[in-house]
């Protein structure tokens, strides 16, 4: 029995070798131009193995500094700078009264139609990087009326002092909380005032708050300056 099994095994070895060779030839790459079991020749298989998969797109070019700055400028477009003329107000006399302004001055203030101009000047070295160094720029707010003119200059987030048009000595600080919002906090004695100026392409809205008294004023745009 053992002799018969050895004889059969020896006779089957050539057949097994032929079967294995045929299987390997059908599965792996053959010589150039030969066809594999999946219908691709060796050249096509090589190109497929060495090409970049479709789900790994070719890298795009890196945006230049100018392109990035233009995109940022478009996103952060501001309407703050310009000239605005008085249009209307609500509860302004009570606001001045709460501040302690005299009747005579309140009367003149009620008759006035102020024109407000907001400008900004930055050092030449910081003009390009102005958005990165806004505190290096000096802002100026000029108010003109038939009776009196007033001008105040400041830098963002830095405490300053001013004598208002009604004669009050105040300490104040201005923050820019958004591309089109300036928030000013004033202190005069025991009076704490909050002024919020909001800007759009056509107007400036001013909300004033002292203690529990609130007032609003609207100015329409006369002229827009370059930001």
Automatic annotation (TrEMBL):
<comment type="similarity">
    <text>Belongs to the calycin superfamily. Fatty-acid binding protein (FABP) family.</text>
</comment>
<dbReference type="InterPro" id="IPR031259">
    <property type="entry name" value="ILBP"/>
</dbReference>
<dbReference type="GO" id="GO:0008289">
    <property type="term" value="F:lipid binding"/>
</dbReference>
<protein>
    <recommendedName>
        <fullName>Lipocalin/cytosolic fatty-acid binding domain-containing protein</fullName>
    </recommendedName>
</protein>
<feature type="signal peptide">
    <location>
        <begin position="1"/>
        <end position="17"/>
    </location>
</feature>
<dbReference type="InterPro" id="IPR012674">
    <property type="entry name" value="Calycin"/>
</dbReference>
<keyword id="KW-0732">Signal</keyword>
